[in-house]
Amino acid sequence: MSSTTTNWVKKHVISLEDFTPTEYDTVLNTAVSFKDVLNSRTKKVPALQGQVVANMFFEPSTRTRSSFELAAKRLSADILNFAPSTSSLTKGETILDTAKTYLAMGANIMVIRHSHSGVPLNIAQEMDRLKTGVSIFNAGDGLHQHPSQALLDLFTLCSLLDPKNPRISLLEGKKIAIVGDILHSRVARSNINSLLASGARVHLAAPPTLLPQLFADTVPSVYHDRLFLHWHLTPALEDADFVMTLRLQKERMADYLLPSLREYHQLFGLTHDRISHCNTDVKILHPGPVNRGVEISSELMDDPRFSLISQQVTSGVAVRMALLYLIGNLK
Ligand code: NCD
Fold first, then answer.
1. pTM for this one?
2. For residue 267, what is the enclosing H or E element?
3. For strand 175-179 and strand 78-82, is the pairing parallel, antiparallel, or unpaired?
4. How confident is residue 261, by pLDDT bands cut at 50, 70 and 90?
5. Which of 77, 134, 135, 221 has the fewest CB atoms below 10 angstroms from its CB?
């Protein structure tokens, strides 16, 4: 692992917009090593012994928070868990003061989730201004980015194609459909960055209220020949190699943008029937949490012939170990 570490230069991981192919491959390679650690008897390495990881989730989370916690523990770091409802935030403390409190306790890495886009970046800038040496990891900010989710999705896909040597170029030319609430999804935004960087063809499908035509302008024009927008599901699914479906982010919708969940399921919900348009060996991903029977049928979600959902969760720990290891060994 030492050769990959020396190549790593990112102190903070805020967004995948500026990730290079080498950085993607470094994360994938490092995650393979940690997958081996997780499959070994001891499951633990001393790589971050003595370092403190603060898990600061200002928004609800099950898998991302637990996954970062387990990853930090498997690396032998000490972990501080922050729960907003029982914290001094309820007494008026600002987010920045909360971060400075953890800094004073010796936090080396802060993993931050917040409902407002930009919060992790602001804290990173403040930590740099104060020359603290602290690394900030964005664990999901508003509608903006969710880098670790897209990296674990990438690892899940590339490991399926070559488990020993997953690399971003394996996805070149593959057709990948992203279906659902793209407008409100930070997972979609981060995945669009990584999948387009891999050379895949990315087909987005959603009702127009959840996928405005202008969305394409948020993606650099060099990628426009491989980015396709659809307001109907079937053309996005035709011959797809992989389909990623997304939760309807009701908490982020200013107004209700759909007539009914039933209608949404009829038009955009994934079912066995619908995926018959895809390649026969198509695989389905979902970042979770899932609204069963809305974006995907319960039967399809639980069908191991197609669903990679539990592999995504498993990959998450190895990928987050890789990321914490890479940023934790910079200094
Ligand atoms: C996603 C998130 O929080 O952005 N979940 C996750 O991290 N696994 C997606 C979602 O909430 O739908």
1. 0.96
2. helix 261-268
3. unpaired
4. confident
5. 221
Kindly tell me if the per-residue pLDDT of 78 is higher than 80. Answer: yes
Contact 208, 123 (CB under 8 A): no
CATH topology of domain 2-144+314-328: Rossmann fold (3.40.50)
Q: 2-144+314-328 and 147-309 share one CATH topology?
A: yes
CB count in 10 Å sphere of residue 216: 15
Three-state SS string over 282-305 comes to CEEECCCCCCECCCECHHHHCCCC
CA distance 185 to 6: 33
For residue 35 and ligand 1, the question of a CB distance below 6 A is answered with no
What mean pLDDT do residues 224-250 have?
Answer: 96
Burial of 323 (0-12, 13-18, 19+ CB in 10 A): buried
Mean pLDDT for 236-250 is 94
SS3 331: coil
**Domain 147-309 is in which class?**
alpha beta
| Per-domain residue ranges of the chain | 2-144+314-328, 147-309
Q: How far apart are CA 44 and CA 36, in angstroms?
A: 10
Confidence class for position 3, pLDDT limits 50, 70, 90: very low
Q: How far is the CA of 198 from the centre of ligand 1 (A)?
A: 22
Mutate to test the pocket of ligand 1, among 187, 190, 285, 294 (most ligand atoms within 8 A of CB): 187
> Which range has the worst mean pLDDT, 38-42, 83-87, 244-248?
83-87
How many other β-carbons are positioned within 10 Å of the β-carbon of residue 20? Answer: 12
